[in-house]
Here is the input.
Amino acid sequence: MGWDDCSISDYTQCCDQFGFNSESSAEFLKFFLNNGAALRFLSYKRKGELSGAVCLDNGWIANDAKNPKMQTGGMPLPTFCIIPPFKENVSCVAPFKAKSLSAQSRNFINSSFDLLSKRQVAYSRCVKGGFSKKARYNRNREVRNFLESGGEFVDVREMSSAFLHDAYHQLFAKRRKCQISHCVTTKSFFSTYHNDFFGKVAFLHGAPVGVQLLITSTSKRGFFVDFINIGYDTDIKGHSLGTIMMWNNLVTAHEHAERAKLPLHFSYGMMSGEYKSMWCTPQKTGRIVTLLG
Here is the structure.
């Protein structure tokens, strides 16, 4: 079949050659390996040439939200739209389970994106052409009003990982009236991948009032930004903090992708909720059709 067990070094080589997103990032997978996850790596060769690789978690492609025995959960990472590192125009039969394949992943003969797959992910519209002139004017006006009222935006990379971790969890609890489960491992993730978090934290009169938690990956496939969750101070009544942060970070991400000359893939997770219909375009995900049960 062309499939063989391989090392994470081989997998990383494929990521560098063919591209990846946050779900398939070798760097993020290393974190789970270092914390005891029993992951398996397979490479695919065509005529002796390394043409792709996958990481498996109990028979499923790693970081698939539908895997009932997932070992890679609990961290601020997406699990909805996986791009395994594969050479374009190489086709093969996938010897694993998957229900969260990206529409960019068309290498597997036994995949389906229509007949047996109804799940959709939400990708943000382009800030230039995806929103009406009126919508852009209103969003920019809201940002200006926030700044004129004593607000500011501080880049997450200008603060410590511990500050980002604590501010996010505290503001999430204020918004949701409940706590996110977090532990020493979560703090270690924030510390290890501090430079992979993206965006700006909203401050008002010197105090943090909003965090839209974004994680990123950059590869030949593009600049990937994944919206993990959001927390903000619901006692602030004069500003729509969620809208302000989402717009400001979307503009910032668009500018970053333009400078890097890469396509921007800004994911809001699964297509659900009224606000995603206003901000996003739906994209189907695929699944592997298998007789493995």
About this structure: The chain has a mean pLDDT of 95.
